[in-house]
Q: What sequence folds into this?
């Protein structure tokens, strides 16, 4: 089977994979998909840091041996213009397509993943120590 892969109109954006040891669970056992988990920061020397709740994790940046590519599957009419088949997300019913409006499948590169952020160490608790002379 032959795949048509195009790189879109601009340079694909670069994304990272985040690799963590152990389990990441919410307090009320909800799925974490699409939810805010924590903040990702970098130190001055480029070390990644994730702050999740009252815990901090230190990681390192690892370059992948083989880059990964995220693709988007779209339907394109035979003349090359984008079809409404892939972008119909507003819930409207699709009209019957004429036989002359045949489509072909193309794959567009959405992003290239060349690096991953690895967090191997156990999370350290963030403890705020009050200054001397400071009262509550």
A:
């Amino acid at each position: 089977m032959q795949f048509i892969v195009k790189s879109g109109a601009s340079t694909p954006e670069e994304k990272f994979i985040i690799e963590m040891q152990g389990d990441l669970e919410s307090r009320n056992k909800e799925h974490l998909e699409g939810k805010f988990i924590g903040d990702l920061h970098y130190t001055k020397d480029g070390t990644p840091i994730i702050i999740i709740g009252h815990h901090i994790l230190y990681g390192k940046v690892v370059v992948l041996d083989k880059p990964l590519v995220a693709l988007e599957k779209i339907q394109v009419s035979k003349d090359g213009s984008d079809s409404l088949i892939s972008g119909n997300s507003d819930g409207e019913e699709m009209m019957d397509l004429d036989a002359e409006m045949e489509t072909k499948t193309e794959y567009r590169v959405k992003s290239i993943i060349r690096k991953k952020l690895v967090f191997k160490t156990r999370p350290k608790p963030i403890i705020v120590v009050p200054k001397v002379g400071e009262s509550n």
User: Anything to note?
Assistant: The beta strands are 5-6, 13-20, 39-42, 48-52, 55-58, 60-77, 103-119, 124-125.
